[in-house]
Amino acid sequence: MTSILSEETRLRDEIAEVGKSLFDRCFTFGSTGNISARLSNGELLMTPTNASMGSLDPARLSKFTAEGVHVGGDKPTKEAFLHQCMYCARGNSGAVVHLHSTHAVAVSILEGLDPDDVLPPLTAYYVMRVGRLPMAPYFPPGDAALAEAVRERAEHSHAVLLANHGPVVAGKTLKEAQYAMEELEETAKLFLMLRGERLRPLTPEQVDALRQT
Ligand SMILES: O=C(O)[C@@H](O)C(=O)COP(=O)(O)O
Ligand SMILES: [Zn+2]
User: Fold this and answer.
1) Of 62, 68, 72, 157, which one's alpha carbon is 20 to 30 angstroms from that of 49?
2) What highest taxon heads this organism's lineage (predicted)?
3) What ipTM was assigned to the predicted interfaces of this complex?
4) What is the CATH number of the domain that holds 197?
């Protein structure tokens, strides 16, 4: 009991800290984005709806039972079901982050990209942190159909881009999800900077070698 309580306190503080760090560095704006983390007993902590990532109150985070019932804190993010679908598809995940990071959102609006993997393997670090980035078709924020479309894709990738919206990433820990999200955003920025240039992305052999490490 004591250790679950201290785990919860630590995770509450970490969600607020990561939210502030992402917000302060302009990875998301206004009250966009949401973060969740899973306790070892299966309970979930989530950011409330309409909350700014820059000023989260650890004590007011929404809390869900392992069965998905909202039992405490403020009214949860409208993407609660999307977060639950990510945990469902990726059993070993401990955290999920969704942001409206500008360059990833820009990529989510481009026509003609491969919806099974929208960004090329530009660098080794991208391959190691993100890997593949499938795109889910557009549905309004909070729509159950959006969560379902993400769940299908999350079975094969821990990062998914929501069309005309933004990225969602799961990680074993919140730090892992945060770092993958930051790498995704920086790679989206590089991709946009390099559009129109002749590219030399990693070869399939180079990508395979990184996936085996
Ligand atoms: O884009 C949206 O409206 C949501 O996906 C979002 O980012 C913020 O919604 P809340 O977490 O309900 O504030
Ligand atoms: Zn959103």
Assistant:
1) 157
2) Bacteria
3) 0.99
4) 3.40.225.10
